[in-house]
Specification:
The protein contains twelve helices and eight strands. The chain is an alpha/beta fold and 303 residues long. The protein folds into two domains: 83 residues, Four Helix Bundle (Hemerythrin (Met), subunit A) (Up-down Bundle), CATH 1.20.120; 199 residues, 3-Layer(aba) Sandwich (Rossmann fold), CATH 3.40.50.300. The chain has an eight-stranded mixed β-sheet, sandwiched between helices.
Amino acid sequence: MFDKIRGALDLAVTKVTTKELSDKNLNDAVWELQLVLIQNDVAVEVAEEVCRRTKEKILGLRTGRLENLTRLFKKAIFDSVLEVLTPIHPLDLLEFAAAQKEKGELTSIMFVGVNGTGKTTTLAKIVNLFKKNNYSVVIAAGDTFRAGSIEQLEKHAQNLGVRIIKQDYGADAAAVAYDAVAHAQARHIDVVLIDTAGRMQSNRNLLEEMRKIARVAEPSLKIFVGDALAGNDALSQAQKFHEAIGIDGAILTKVDADPSGGAALSIAFITGRPIVYVGVGQNYEDLQKFDPEWFARRLVSID
């Protein structure tokens, strides 16, 4: 996990910390760092921000002792990455649902993202998470476009022992979501998870459909699901959905196979919304709460 970027960062730091730190050496080091980040799917503006913060921290140290430079430079990068990843407003789905339940309100979560990112499987993992924490759950089969999507969701629902609200293919997805919320309210179910279609993010009809679902069903939260391996494409997708409906957080899939880690850094910084969970396998239990410090330590190897 993140082997590619970690190795590249190690080489870059070693290259620029073999001599005393001067203004020129520092500028060379920061430029080298920026190139490494961009080459590992970190958006340009995010790479620039990490480098700006890193340079500020190094300037504050002003040390010329060779034996400390590598460690200090890595620590500065680590702290900068951690700052970029740490959300101003964290989001914990279980805590949110608990607060909603305390108020006598249900939690409805709308999942958005393009096809192939593992959105439906991720939704099933969230079902499992809620059920393990003693919440009752119902699923809305809001992807009425992709062939086989409803059957796929039905299989997950059967495996996990939850009810699915569905209509035929071609039905109004917003109506399906609305029905699921009404069903949950009538039966005092704690959580509604809404699956949605995932045609390409540039498809205007898809984004209009997302807006309609959000307007009709009024979900408590809107979560973007992106593929970590998609790099800058995942960022582009997150931006489009955020502009269309205003996402509250993101879940990244396939993080266990990601050699760069650029998508998480970019999405968190550009959208200003937290990475909530990461997918690390195909089983229902393979969902890990996102910890910015855990992520930063794997991105930057520090003592």
